[in-house]
Structure formats: C-alpha cells, structure tokens
Amino acid sequence: MTNPFKKYRIDRLFFHSFAIIIILVIAVTAWTSYSNSSKALVQTTSHYQQRLLDELNNEITTRLDMIEQISLSTSRDNELTTFLSNRQDDFERYRKRISVESALGNLTYAIPLIQGIDLYMDQPMPSSGQSYIQFRNILDLDKQSWSRNLVKSDFAWSGEYSIPSVQGDIPVLSFARKIMNENDYLGVLVVHIKAKEIRALLTGNSTGSNRIMADSAGKQILSIGETLEQKEWSKWIDLKSNKSGYVHIPGDKDSGNTLLVYSRMDNSIWTLIEFTSWKQITASSLELAEWIGLIGIGAILLVLLLTHYLSRQFSKPIKQLVSAMKVYSVGGHKEELPSDYENEFGYLFSGYRKQTERIEELYLSLERRYEQQRKAEIEALQANINPHFLYNMLDQLNWMAIEAGQDELSRILELMGQMFRIGLSNGASFIMVSEELQHIQCYLEIQQLRWGDGLEYTIEVEPGLQEAYLPKLTLQPFVENSIVHGFNKQRSGHVSIRLTKVEETLQIRIDDNGAGLKQPEARPQRRHTGGYGIRNVRERIAGYFGNDYGVTLKEREEGGTRVEIVLPLLTEAPAQILTASLAAKEG
Question: Membrane-spanning residues where (predicted)?
Fold first, then answer.
C-alpha cells in the first residue's frame, strides 16, 4: 500500500485525515448508541413475547390435550368397539349405530371447541349430510392428506383445512386416533376442532401479531398475520429441545431482518412462534442515532476549518516532493530537492533520494527475473507437449502394427492409447465412473491377451452411478496388484469389481481369488510400482476427502484378497479441480 504522505498534497491530506477521524468517531458513537439500545429493546421485547407465548402455549396445550383425552376414552368405549366389530345382525347393528351417533353427538354439543366427528369403519351405514357425526368408509381414509401421519403412529394432528357443513366450508384442525380392540384394527376416530377457536387463542389480546403454531416435527399447523415460510424459520429452531428462546434472522433483498421468538414447553408438543420486524423494534434507536449524527456534522464543519488552515502551513515542501515524484522516471531526468531542511522534511527528502536509488536497483533486478520467468514458461509449455507426443506415437505404432498384420499387438497399442487418453483427461483430477471403468476394462483386456483364457473378470455397477465422479486411476493399482502378485503362481484367476451406493457414499469392492495377503516366505518381493500406486491412491483420497474415507485390504474367507474403497458420492467434480482442468485446457 502506497504511503499517503508520499502521494497526496499535505493540505488535502490533513483536511481529509481529520475529517475521516471525526466522522469515524461520530459514526462509532452513533453506531454504539444504536447497537446497545437496539439490543436492550430486543431483549425486552423478546422476554415479553416469550412469556406471552408460554402462557398461550399452556392454554392451547390444555385445550388440545382435552381433545386427545376425549378421543382416547371414546376410542376405548365398549359400545363403540362392539359396533365397529361388525358381528351383529342388521337390526342390532342399526340400533348400536343410533346409540354411537347419539353419544358422539352429545360429545360434540357439550364441547363448543368440537366442530364435528368422523368415524372411519368397514361397511359404514349411511348418515345424513347435515349431521355433525359422519360414518365414512375406511377405504376413503387415504384421500385425506393427514392420513399418512397414522402409518407409524396411533394418533396424529392435521394442519388447517376446510370441511363442508350446513354453514358452508369450515376451517378445522383434526385429531385422528386409531381404534384398536385386542390388537384388531377397527377404524379411525377423527375429531374436527374449530380452527377459528385455536386461532383466537393464538392471537390472544395482541392485534397485528404474526404467529405460527407448529407440532413437534416442525410442521406448520396454524398461522396468523404475515409469517416466514416454513423452510426459512425451521432451520433456526432446535425442535429436539424443550427450551424457549429467540433468534435474530438476517434478511435478504426481498425482506428485512426479523426477530423470531418461540415457545416450547416440557408438557406440550406444540411450538408457538412469533415474528416481529427488526425495523419496527429498533425504530427509536435509529432516531437517537440520527440526532447524534446531526450534532456530529456540526462538529465536523468546525474541525475541518481549523485543519484547512494548518495544512496550508505545511504544503510548500510537500508540493516540491510531489513535483519531483511526478517527473521521476527510471534512468531519466531527476528534479533536485532542497538540501537546507534540517527538520522532518529534510529526513523525508533524504529518504526519497535513497528510495530512488533503490528503485533503480530493483528495476534491474526485475528485468533479470522477468527473463528467468519467460524461460521457465517456455520450458513448462514444452513439458505439456510431451504427453500428447507420446499419445500420437502410440497411434503411429498402432498403424504400423496393423500394416504388419500384428493384430494382437495393434489391439494392445489401441487399448494403451485409450488408457493414456483417459489418464490425461485434459488435466482433470476427477473423472466419471464410466471413464474409470473404461480405463480398467482396457487394462484387463490387455492382460487377457497375455493370459489367454486364464483370466476372467466381472464388473457390476448399480444404476445411476455411471455419471458419478471419483479421482482418476483409482481402480488400476489394485487390479494390477491382484494380477501381478495375487496370480503370480496361478494359471488362472478371476477379478470381481462391484460399485454400489450406500447412503451418500460410493463403495467399491475388488475381489480376487489369488494368493491373498498372507503369502509364503518364498514369495517374490513386491514390485515398487504396485506399492507406490496403492499408496498414491490412499494419499490422494486422504488429501481430497479427509480420514473419513479410504481404502481397506483384507483376506477373503474363501481365499484371495478383498479391497474396499469408500468415497463420497459426487454428482459433479469439485470446483477447485474443475478450475484446474479449465486452466489446463486453456494452456
């Protein structure tokens, strides 16, 4: 960074320096005042809202627990279970239906919170469309959006929706409970709760509130006012904790910051959430900061007048230095600076002279370094030509083998060319699984040409994994190890390669029926290339993905060796590797 005292005029430098300092002081003061007062307001507001939400949560929980208890006792009623067992004649069944309908009707009239009750059962008897008690076919249960919540539970709450009635469509919340008798599934009892009653409880005495009621799984049941989408607020609340709290949600370009206050209680499955605009809470703090800013502007004007006067007293020697700096060029004309200054300006001029001398030396050094860098770049470009030259030579040798009638040699050269092309991969470090498998198939086919019918292999890939990515040349060192070391005293061998998806990982298993890891003492010494290749794969996996992934080698019970490779399931190559690949292509 250039020293401003060597670049700007001293009068402007003093003027702007003092201006910036005063502005910063005023800004820090205003911001500190705004920040501290905002925090105090937020804490007060969140504390008040949290206490209010706890009270509302307790009241709503009491009401809804009553519904759950009524549903439980009703589902265990002997007359209801006898009616649902469908073991009576038609007359007796009709008589019990009247009795059950009357009992459920009395329950509906006795509790104003209940809008109606539906009973899902086998072979229901028709009921009046105007009745609050409806007998429905159990086969129609799947048509209800909340029915899937009963798959793993005996009871469940639904979100808000509307049901038809004599007054028109009525918004309700429904509580559904399975009716069981001696492990027999008889039907489902659904109690419809008036949503407007719960909404009134959720509103309380507040007007203009923005609140949400959610269940223990974080599913939104009811809302009032303007609230955030579930995907936006659910990530800020720990639904596994029974503690209430608040959090500041940062805004985006479409919405401002929001204060989220939530209530969770030990005896309740419900979460009550209130949203308050951050701007609304901090309005008074912002007004205080504005007043401080206005006072600061007046102070800034006074200080700037003083600094302008003082800066003019120091401007002359600085202007001389600035003029000398403007006309200076390496190897060109140099403007002479005064030598009669004995104060700080004299030290400044002396330092400038030494600096110009150092610049001359650095310029010569940069010229030498530039020439060295240019030579290094030419050598690097030449090194990039070599792999392509070798690939072209393989292609020429292939054509010579074809002309000479050496079909087997031609096929080997062709396969080596394919392997070399995949190995280059335009400089990319990650390739698709399909390309990796093509590379290993080329290698195995070359080995089959050498072994004849003695070498067999199988490759199994789960659907959808062909387009996944992995570090290139991951399989070849292990397959080579199986053939070169595992089958070195055998006339035949079999290599099995299987790629599977386990959760979010790609798992590769390589099995062979060779000599295994525990071999006799007379076993020939392992080739250095094979050991390096396996170590290279391990180090690359550790470098790319960390210690959670890697390679495991072990003995198979039926003989031979098993290699297990665990990698993350990548649907695209990592960005840093793609960048390197693109750079290599452009080069």
Answer: 12-34, 291-310
For residue 383, with 0-12 CB atoms within 10 Å meaning exposed, 13-18 middle and 19 or more buried, which class applies? exposed
Alpha-carbon span 22 to 18, nearest angstrom: 6
* Rounded distance between C-alpha atoms, residue 55 and residue 39, angstroms: 24
CA end-to-end span of the chain, whole Å?
32
Cβ-proximal residues to 143 (8 Å cutoff; 6+ apart), any chain: none
Round to whole Å and give the CA distance between 420 and 179.
69
14 is written with which tokens?
Answer: 């003093």
CA-based radius of gyration for the chain: 41
- Tokens matching residue 383: 């090194």
Output b/e per residue, 222-252; b: 16+ Cβ within 10 A: bbbeebbeeeebbebbeeeeeebebeebeee
Return the structure tokens found at 90. 């038609």
> What is the 3-state secondary structure of 352-368?
HHHHHHHHHHHHHHHHH
The answer to whether 19 touches 311, Cβ cutoff 8 Å, is no
User: What is the rounded CA–CA span in Å between residue 367 and residue 373?
Assistant: 10
Query: How does the average pLDDT of the chain come out, rounded?
Result: 80
Rounded CA separation 326/331 (Å): 14
Q: Which helix (H) or strand (E) holds 546?
A: none
Could you please report the per-residue DSSP string of 443-500? HHHHHHHHHGGGEEEEEEE-TT-TT-EEETTSSHHHHHHIIIIITTT-S-EEEEEEEE
Burial of 515 (0-12, 13-18, 19+ CB in 10 A): buried
- Token pair 């309005």 is found at 283
Q: Where are the beta strands (DSSP E) in 257-351?
A: 258-264, 271-277
**Quick one: tokens of 278?**
């951050």
Residues 249-259: pLDDT tens digits? Answer: 887 655 678 88
> pLDDT tens digits for 300-355?
777 777 776 766 666 777 777 777 777 777 766 677 777 777 788 788 878 878 88
Tell me the residue length of the chain: 587
- The amino acid present at 516, given as its one-letter code, is G
Measure Cα distances from 576 to 270, 467, 544 in Å.
Answer: 45, 19, 11
Q: How far is CA 127 from CA 119, 148, 172, 289, 309, in A?
A: 11, 26, 21, 68, 97
Q: What is the pLDDT of residues 197-213, one digit of tens each?
A: 888 888 887 777 888 88
How many CB atoms are located within 10 Å of the residue 491 CB?
Answer: 10
**395: three-class secondary structure by DSSP:** helix
